[in-house]
Amino acid sequence: MDEYCSPTQRLANLDAIRGVGVLGIFFLNIYFMGNSFFGYAPHEIQPTADIAILIFSNFFLEGRFFSLFAMLFGVGMLIQYQRQQMSIDTANNSQPKKNVIKMRLYWLIVFGVIHAIFIFPGDILLPYGVGGLLAFRYINLNADELLQKAKWFIFLSLIPIALISLIPDEQVYTRSSALFIEQLPIWIGTYGQQLKMHLTMFGYMLLVIPLTLMWFVAGLMLLGMALYKRKVFINGLDNKTLWQCVFWTLLLSSLDSVLSISGNPMLEAISDLLVWLSAVAMALIYIHFICKFCQNSASKLTLLQNVGRLAFSLYILQSIVGILLLRYIAPEWLYTLDRIGYMSIAIIYSVLQLALASLYLRKFNQGPLEKLWRGLVSRTS
């Protein structure tokens, strides 16, 4: 049986979860803000600290916040749809207007295209927009039906992901490899050179999204809707589901860690597939504990809630800051930084984002990009 939350009430839990998501995603994206195609270049013999951080990431970071955001996006769509239905019922109109939500998704796709081409090709907005259009088709299903659809969509997405992951890759990308030396001047060269690489990666995204990400993202959004209808975003998970998530996270993340440091390209490819599954389980654990700590109170986890309210603006700002730092201000860091260096940058910038969000919201009610997005939707709906 579905248990709807009130769509008119702002859920502090959602803002706090969104805050964790936007801070957490930078810990992964930072590796790709130098070389956006290959990301971090490991040493041929990895330092102990690199291995430790890699294992830590496999358990707590890798893919977790992408999944978290996708679920939250589904929740946001459902809440807005419920609000529309309430306003239409009040006006005695039997046909809900869906064009506002679809227009939000269309504009998100536009933002994603601009972001991917001109700023950072590791964009998530475009797949969220496309996946959202697919998920929206099933928004009226009950929680059980949404869960079934979510499972099928996620399963279907993993088939091509597995096939792509298992394609042999004979290119060696390490700190001392010819490929690393060949790639680096392009990413720290002129903006025109970088733009060509962005366009190449964008073309690749256009091929991959319909086969994989669209279905995976839509599945996560449907999962988020189902959990919202069951009040998980207020009460957290039940004990049985929580322990199931803990079990699968530990099992899959352990396998992922063993395979990812094996040095065998085929085993490392399999580990990439396991990340997608363990990420969903760990994201659910994050949701549970944030809900328990926040208790839907505006006075708890306030700093995270502030970041969550500015998630769109801060996400784009992360890309701008990361690109400027690693390609223009300190490009030599791409030669010298180990994982602990990237982790340090992410921690420092996370603290700055917490402070920036708090200061900004003292004078303004919403972020600049949030305001722009809402205005564009309002004018075109």
3D structure, described in words:
With 381 residues, the protein is mainly α. Helices cover 75% and strands 0% of the residues. It is built from 16 helices and no strands. The protein is globular, with a radius of gyration of 21 Å. The two termini are 34 Å apart. The mean pLDDT is 91.
Compile the SSE list and pairings.
Blueprint lengths: L11 H18 L18 H13 L3 H27 L8 H20 L6 H12 L6 H23 L12 H10 L3 H39 L2 H4 L3 H22 L4 H30 L7 H8 L1 H19 L3 H4 L2 H22 L7 H13 L1
Helix pairs in contact: 1-3, 1-11, 1-12, 1-13, 1-15, 2-10, 3-5, 3-8, 3-11, 4-5, 4-8, 4-16, 5-8, 6-8, 6-11, 10-11, 12-15
Terminal CA distance reads: 34 Å
User: Can you tell me the number of structural domains?
Assistant: 1
The number of helical segments is: 16
- Which series of helices and strands comes N to C? HHHHHHHHHHHHHHHH
Total beta strands: 0
* Overall average residue pLDDT: 91
Keywords: Membrane, Transmembrane, Transmembrane helix
Pfam families: DUF418 (PF04235)
Organism: Shewanella polaris
InterPro entries: Bact_Transport_Assoc, DUF418
